[in-house]
Every structure is written in C-alpha cells, then in structure tokens.
Amino acid sequence: MKRRTNGRPGGSTSAGTSAGTGPWWRRRLMQARAWAADYAYVAYWQVRGFLFRKDPAVYLAPSKESAAGSQRCPVILIPGVYENWQFLRPLAEALSARGHPVHTVAPLGYNRGRIDRMAVLVQEYLVEHDLSGVVAVAHSKGGLIGKQLMLLPEGGRRVDRMVAVNTPFSGSVYANFFVLPSIRAFAPRNKFLRRLQESSDINARITSVYSRFDPHIPGGSHLPGARNIRLETMGHFRPIGDPRLLAVLEQELDGQA
Questions:
Q1: Closest among 162, 178, 212, 192 to 18, alpha carbons compared
Q2: Taking a C-beta distance cutoff of 8 angstroms, is the pair 178, 184 a contact?
Q3: What is the pTM of this model?
Q4: Can you name the residues that pair with 206 across neighbouring β-strands?
Q5: What is the number of H-type helices and E-type strands within the chain?
Q6: 42-64 pLDDT, tens digit each
Q7: For 158-195, how does the pLDDT look when each residue is reduced to its tens digit (9 = 90+)?
Q8: Which whole-number Å values give the CA distances from 45 to 30, 86, 92, 192, in the listed order?
C-alpha cells in the first residue's frame, strides 16, 4: 500500500495507488462501474446479514489467535442509515481478531432515527457497560452520530477518538431530492447538520477516511481539522470490505494504543 501524507493537522493522506485522470469518458465509465459494484456489494451484505445473522457477543472477547491473546482498546461500531451492525461484520471480525473487544448497539436497529437520538442510545450503551478509552468506528451517517456522541457529556469522556468512513460531514446535495426525514437530514442546509459542523473543536479527535469516488457524497468527506485519509477505493459501501481500509484502521488503532 502506497501512502503519502503532509504531516499537518487537518492534512490528508492517500492510501493506495492513484489511477490518474485520463479521458473524461473513461472516468465516467469507471465511475459507472464503481456505482454498480457498490450496489452489488451493499445488496450482498444486506441479504447476508439478514439471512445469516451472527451473535455480536462473539466479538466482545479477543480471539486466541490475536497477538499474545492481549486485549486492546474497545471499539464501538456505528453503522450508516438503513444499515444495522451486521453490515459492518467485516470490520468486526478483523478488529476482534486483532484483540479489540468490538461492541455493537442493538437499539440502533437499521439506524433510521434522528442523529441526536441515536447518539444518546450509544451513550447509554457506553454508560451501561462502563466503557472508557473507546474508539468509535463509524460508516456514513454513523460518523455524524459519532461526532454528536463525542459532544455529549458521557460520550465525550468515554470515547477517545473516532474513525469515520465516508461520512457526509458537510452533507450531500442529493439529500435535497428526498422527502424521507432519514435522508433529508443530510441536506447541506439542515440546521442540525450545520450546528454539528460548527462544533469543530472535536475534529482533532476524528480521522475521516473516504473514497476517491463516492457516488452518494459528491462533495466528499474531508473534515477540516481532522486527520483525513483518502482511499483509492471507489464507492460508498465497498470500502467496508477493502483491505486498504483495514490497514488504515490497524494503523489508527495502533497509534491510539
């Protein structure tokens, strides 16, 4: 994996090898293929998660094969909208194998509720299980929930930092064309979203990882003041199962340790 970084707070790192620009029609063709592959990926994991459900308790204890069987910092998974924790199973399995107790929050369901209410549910889980030194690993809407969580009294005290994957920190213009409140919440002019953007002091504790091309977030997921890492992966969902994302998570969590 080829990595480049400018080493400054709020700067960016690139993980992977750039494919270059090329003719406009070739870029459009690549994006169309990436879009199709993205939806094939999400369809596969949604169906698999529904038909072959796994008990999340298996990820709470480090595996015997993990380094020296040691237990590392706890991780809490926060999925995106219309996703439940089963969609993030590739991350749960990889992180648990490295010795991290991986926690999920069942009351989130398919994460269709308001961002602030979902953050409260995660905070209640942290308090109930008396977790501290936690790293939140979130996808899409989950990153907004994670940031709001870190602004709450108990959430901010118990969560050290967050790694957010393809999160619409500045919203998505596509949300303007939806009537569903669960999607309209991502509109760039949404009042809650704009208040969340103004809370920039917390950004230094966030790592924003995003795809080279994200069909759902055309404006990108760059977060000012955060550690920003761009993957050469294309798509909104496919990075969840990409080894390059797992490599980034390993580095981020090792740095946390």
A1: 212
A2: yes
A3: 0.85
A4: 162
A5: 8, 8
A6: 776 677 666 667 888 999 986 55
A7: 999 999 999 999 999 999 999 899 999 999 999 999 99
A8: 22, 8, 14, 30
